[in-house]
What we know:
By secondary structure, the protein is an alpha/beta fold. Helix content is 45%, strand content 13%. Residues 16, 152 line the site of magnesium ion.
Amino acid sequence: MTATSRGAFIVIEGLDRSGKSTQAAILQSRLQGPEQSTTKAVLIKFPDRTTTIGKMIDAYLRSQSEFDDHAIHLLFSANRWELASTIYAHLAAGTTVIADRYAFSGIAFSARKGLSYDWCRAPDIGLPAPDLTLFLNVEPGVARTRGGYGEERYETEDVQRSVRVVFERIGEEMKTDGQGQWVEIDASREKDLVARNIWRVVEPLSRGVASSLRKLWE
Length: 218
Ligand code: TMP
Ligand code: MG
């Protein structure tokens, strides 16, 4: 890291069971390197189920409570806003931040229910913008065969198929509107190969970023 650089903000997105959490952990340990004494990379997961808002989201996902579709959408967004200052602080300290899901999941999972795409995007406008978003692309049929699928709300093949359609729209828009890089990764491949393909894209950012951080969709 040079005197003027900051940490990179890297988001990992994808369907449920696309391998996001596994790959985020591999990436973090790779960025962290052998020197464990200084923190070079932190991993943040959305939803962050540990906060007060996160606990409400967790109960909803486990079907222990119900919310109006708009209300739960806003809670997911609020859960990102409550972590925004933490993200800024890490980046300013030169630490790379990896987010396991972000605003793109927020849009994809709510717009598929029929909520307006623009309405879904609005509450996340102004959040820290990622320098790079890795979209782990996997066929919903492949994801379904992976362990743990089907335990939570949204973990059905039908839902995932419609979520994927919205993700495709988001990816197209991100590629054309200069909102940082959106890179698709074939997540149906073997774990180590996926990790290598991810590292190839992340490596140039691993020593810090010189440009100032942007705000999402502003
Ligand atoms: P997880 O499986 O990564 O813990 O995410 C929980 C579920 O919440 C997953 O099905 C995606 C969904 N989700 C939303 O509906 N809106 C959001 O803003 C986020 C971050 C996740
Ligand atoms: Mg899940």
